[in-house]
Amino acid sequence: MSGLAEAHGVVGDRFFPATIASDDPFAADELALPTISLGNHETDYDFEYTKTIFPHFAVSLGGGYVDAHPPGGSNTSGWDNFEITPMWQFETDADGEFVASAGMSFEIGGSGAKSVADRFTTYTPEVLFGKGFGDLPEEMALLRPFAVTGVLAYSIPGSGTESKALQWSGAVEYSLLYLQDNVRDQGFSNFVAHLTPLVEFAMTTPTDTGRTTGTINPGILWSGQYSQLGIEAVIPVNRESGRNVGAIAQLHFYIDDLFPDTLGRPIFGGN
Q: What is the dihedral of CA 54, 51, 149, 203, to 10 degrees?
């Protein structure tokens, strides 16, 4: 697959790039640093490092620095709470280009600055999946490069005054690499062949009172053998979600490809 045959995120003939606004369903060694988001009078600088412990089981650590400057208010900045997420990739179907995982996220209350972070811990069980459409019939061959990913999660705050919430997010993506290698040769340059246009969404629905909030994020990713660069617009779905269009960009490293014999292999049971 044009230099990606052994890469992170490959299921059968399908390469799933690491998405920005929603988690990807792979228990793999990777590093997102930095992720920079602009919008709603706030700039966030985030990171996430994921380490495999056993094959198909990984733990990620994430955090970020918040710089908020609300109109008419005082500026607020500081580290947000850190988040730990164990994840088990329990299903990988190469023929069906399908992968599924389950995880449990712990946002550690009080680990960030008092000015921006909650003092209570939030627990979020989640199910993640990815599905490519390479099994479509020949008359629909141009649709085979499409793939979808999704996350369904339930946020449970450790404070009785905060609402539980259903979090649902995902992406619809079209792989030019899959089109070039598995449908028909388009004569793309090496750079163009590694582009993936996509539209992501990230929504939160409270279980008691309040409206659904979230964003729609159209953008593009460029994925190489060892790293990935992506940029997306961040469009609020309603006024409660924000009044301005923002942007998010991420530099992502595939540690399992960069260091396959050391940092990129599971601590236990790795080959």
A: 130
Q: Write out the two tokens for 55.
A: 């094959």
| Reduced DSSP (H G I as helix, E B as strand, rest coil) percent helix, strand, coil of the chain, to 5 | 10, 50, 40
pLDDT in tens, 235-271: 999 999 998 999 999 999 999 999 999 999 999 987 6
pTM of the model: 0.93
Q: Are 194 and 177 spatial neighbours (Cβ–Cβ below 8 Å)?
A: yes
Domains of the chain by range and CATH?
10-258 (2.40.160.40)
Contact between 226 and 31 under an 8 Å Cβ cutoff? The reply is no
CA count, 13 A, side-chain hemisphere, 206: 10
Distances (CA, A) of 152 to 79, 90, 166, 207, 231: 26, 16, 8, 14, 23
Contact 85, 109 (CB under 8 A): no
**DSSP assignments along 90-143, one per residue:** EEEETTTTEEEEEEEEEE-TTSS-TTTS-SS-EEEEEEEEEEE-TTS-GGGGGG
